[in-house]
Amino acid sequence: MRSPMARLQIEGDMVALFREINIRLKTLQRKGRLPLPSIGATAASKAPDSYVPAGISVINPASCATTRSDAPIKAPQVYAELIRRLPRETRYFIDNSNSVPWSIHYFFHPRPQSYHLSIEFATMAWAVGAAVGGAFGNRRAPSVCIAGDGCYLMSGQEITVAVERQLPVLFVVLNDRGYGLIRHGHRIAGKEDVDFSIPPVDFAMMGRAAGAEAFTIRSMKDFDALDWQALADRQGPTLLEVMIDPEEQPPIAMA
Ligand SMILES: Cc1ncc(C[n+]2csc(CCOP(=O)(O)OP(=O)(O)O)c2C)c(N)n1
Ligand SMILES: [Mg+2]
């Protein structure tokens, strides 16, 4: 059914849609909070393909695998983890960094409208403030900012607004200790190898200093130690600093 007059346009199977909406509304009424996706007890050992939708092939399935190991984390693994752990109503704001190509290729969310990019001006740090704005608009589910370390350093003070106004923002800082997109872009283009590194910064400590909760993730196993329900319910910001593999090449210049 499609009508330009309708405030809410629905596409798909009505019965299936309303069945799901009713289930979610009942859970919300009963528990007073949105349900987390049920990833099951065996989630940690799920096959990589369970995250990638059927009919889609990715360049490197291992780089978004949810399997646990001590190997350095690849950025797409972080998306897979967030998407399967947080409520479906969660909104994602992707900053301008390697996260743009990573997310275009590997971000598989059941609600595409939850995925926000800003590639017109492509300014670094846009997502930091946008995630705070998103939380002002809707406090029911987390508003997630995914930013590189360089992006977050350009504009990290907005976290103080989220602390002051007790907003459910999750700042995910993908720390590769450098300007990764530029480093990989130069490498692929065969340009001179200048220094793209960012000095070590403890982003979790920065978050705590502003009054947020903060955690440092060094391996996929660390994700299991987080209380995801508490994180999803929290009315206030959380900062997740994720140490990622700086050598993993993003999917750019694929043609
Ligand atoms: C204000 C601004 N300055 C410079 C750039 C060019 N630029 C795009 S991505 C990037 C590096 C981003 O580094 P980081 O946030 O650490 O993300 P990474 O690529 O390492 O994941 C730069 C310098 C830009 N887009 N906006
Ligand atoms: Mg970086």
What does this structure look like?
35% of the residues lie in helices and 12% in strands. The chain has 10 helices and 6 strands. It has a 6-stranded parallel β-sheet with strand order 2-1-3-4-6-5. Helix 3 links the parallel strand 1 and strand 2. Helix 2 crosses helix 3. The protein is globular and about 55 Å long. About 2% of the residues have low confidence.
Blueprint of the fold:
Layout: H1 14-31, H2 75-85, E1 91-94, H3 99-106, E2 115-116, H4 126-137, E3 143-148, H5 149-155, H6 159-164, E4 169-175, H7 180-189, H8 203-209, E5 213-217, H9 220-224, H10 228-233, E6 238-243
Sum this structure up briefly.
The protein is of the alpha/beta class and 255 residues long. It has helices at residues 14-31, 75-85, 99-106, 126-137, 149-155, 159-164, 180-189, 203-209, 220-224, 228-233, and strands spanning 91-94, 115-116, 143-148, 169-175, 213-217, 238-243.
Number of helices: 10
H-E string: HHEHEHEHHEHHEHHE
Bound molecules: thiamine diphosphate, magnesium ion
What fraction, in percent, of the residue positions are helical? 25-40%
Q: Largest beta sheet: what is the strand line-up? A: 2-1-3-4-6-5
Radius of gyration: 19 Å
Low-confidence stretches: 40-45
Largest sheet: 6 strands, parallel
Mean pLDDT: 90
Strand residue percentage? 5-15%
